[in-house]
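Trying the structure run again after the queue cleared.
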Amino acid sequence: MKGYKSKKAKANILRSYDQLMELWGVSYEDIWIENDYGKTHIITCGNKSGEPLVLFHGVGDNSALMWIYNAKALGQHYRLFAIDTMGGPGKSEPGIGYNKSFHDIDWIDSILNGLGLDKVHMTGTSHGGYLVMYYLLKRPERVMKAIGMASAISNDNRNPMYTMMKIFLPEALFPTKGNVLKLIKKLSGEHHQVFTENPVIMEHYASLLKGFNNMAMGYHKVVPFTKEEVSKIGEGIYLLLGRRDPFEKLGGEEAVKSRKLNAMFFEEAGHGINHEEASEINRIIIKILKGEVEDIRNYNT
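Done. Tokens:
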């Protein structure tokens, strides 16, 4: 399945991808790990003597956009490995093995093995948070600390695409300049300006909506967790969530609280929590990874 609607669309996305990387303000390397599913692109930067922190972005975006406001601060303490998800609009290149036999755990295993990493910290946003939870469930021995942002543990059997469509439509179908702005404001909380006042982000996001086929990530199978699995994941995951996130408004917060999960809510943040509240998010991530805070439910930043 093609990820880009045309060669021109791909070129526009990758051009603005590189422009976003210039705004990270850090020195970085591009690494490709090849396996049966294709070539996975990883951006590595930060403290070379720091513990490894693996970063996963969400559906329909990429590492360049997702970590633009986080990489510099987190990289002062950790060696970062920002993964472009296979099938997403980044620089990873799906191969013939990226098909119905694709398996997230095998894919992540091969990446960590290829990087020579035995145990790592993991942080993910939205679908990236799901990947962190899933890997924590299946490979707890390889995860030191796990953090999910704008993402909740689900045992809901509804198709996640239903939720996506309810939030993203109709603006995503007609990505005019006005609709792109409207969609970003719909997804964001009080601080949408971190997106809307950054022309490179706005250009890149518009290019993604116009030129990327989200169905290309369809081989990443999102399966609901059983109650037992939710309990097991809940023992090790830290959740950072925005109360203005439209996904949370559809019942996520209620589920988090009823399960007594180790979650911290940001009153003014939306789905782009790590952009909108970057300084506080960076600070709490570092504190969690350093073991300076265990229970974040009543933690005052």
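The domain at 7-289 is CATH 3.40.50.1820 (Rossmann fold). Worth checking whether this holds up in the mutant runs.
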